[in-house]
Amino acid sequence: MTAERFFCADAARARGDALPGTAPYGLVWVLVEHHAPWPANGYDGLPLEPATKSRLYDAARAVRARILLIRRHGRRPADAGPRRWAVLRYDATGAHRQHWGTWDRDEDLALAAAALDAPGEPGHPPVVLVCAHGRHDTCCALRGRPAARALAERWPELVWECTHVGGDRFAANVLVAPDGVYYGGLDAASSVAVVEQHLAGRVHAAHLRGYTDLFPAQQAAVAAVLARNGPAGRHDYTVTGTSRAGPHWLVRVTGPPPRATAYDVEVTAHRAAPHQLTCNGPATSAAMLHEVTSIRAG
């Protein structure tokens, strides 16, 4: 008798795994367009010229940037001509910055490494990245690609498939960068609705994993305020205070002027029971959960 195949996203939905507080921290992303099949470990597995590969890797690590391989949805030949690269940089003022270029030879990626030392240009529309990294996790392909198809049909110039962004069990995962907003648990229809609202300046609590400039307890606090008050712009709410006593956090979230209402949000962190959190491999892990226990308007 054949054992039933395990899918981590199905299991996470059945358990009701919480989304808020699960976005990986990050302020800078390096995107490298790559048409050939992606290695399971993404950029690390590319057979690039060693010196250039190391230069970009070291430059990214120096500023804690994440390197993601990208491609447009749909199959393209590996020799489809010059590919694009980008450096996306989050800015707390909302003037998010981007630097784009092209590469034909491996050595051209040295320009991407150099761009990590430059501020980049504001004014570009955000980039919508959909994790569709099937060699890393099956659910990322099964759930990510239908979402990528629907989004690309609507916004062909903004949408790219990308390699692993973290949280396989929350597929389909969408990262809007350099805004630094993670969404999860999406499908084709909900991904279009969520991104449409995001581009209109309305971040909803539903499907929100978190803001990447915040730590998990802070992400959970902001998501709770959004759930209470309704959708808001990416920078409408700011974290203006955080304190911790063991597993208990007190996060102050302040709203936009002119009222600038402040909310004191209590968050408790604890480990969930161990579960298999990815499709690839039977190992179990205990995820950290951040549960909001109270919200008080100050």
Describe the structure.
The protein has 298 residues and is an alpha+beta fold. It has a domain at 28-182. Helix content is 23%, strand content 27%. The protein contains six helices and 13 strands. The strands form two sheets. It has a nine-stranded mixed beta sheet with strand order 4-3-1-2-6-5-7-8-9. The chain has a four-stranded antiparallel beta sheet with strand order 10-11-12-13, with helices on one face. Helix 4 crosses helix 5. 42% of the residues are buried.
For this entry, give a set of tags.
about 300 residues; four-stranded antiparallel sheet; alpha+beta; globular; nine-stranded mixed sheet
The count of β-strands is: 13
Largest sheet: 9 strands, mixed
Shape label: globular
Question: Distance N terminus to C terminus?
Answer: 60 Å
How many helical elements? 6
* Category from helices, strands and their pairing: alpha+beta
**Strand adjacency order, main sheet:** 4-3-1-2-6-5-7-8-9
- SSE arrangement, N to C: HEHEEEHEHEEEHEHEEEE
Mean pLDDT: 94
Q: In percent, how helical is the residue content?
A: 10-25%
Quick overview of this protein structure:
By secondary structure, the protein is α+β, with helices and mostly antiparallel strands. Helix content is 23%, strand content 27%. β10 and β11 (248-254) form a beta hairpin.
Write the layout of secondary structure elements.
Blueprint: H1 8-15, E1 28-33, H2 50-62, E2 66-71, E3 83-89, E4 97-103, H3 110-115, E5 127-131, H4 138-154, E6 159-162, E7 174-177, E8 181-183, H5 188-199, E9 208-211, H6 216-229, E10 238-245, E11 248-254, E12 262-271, E13 288-297
Helix pairs in contact: 4-5
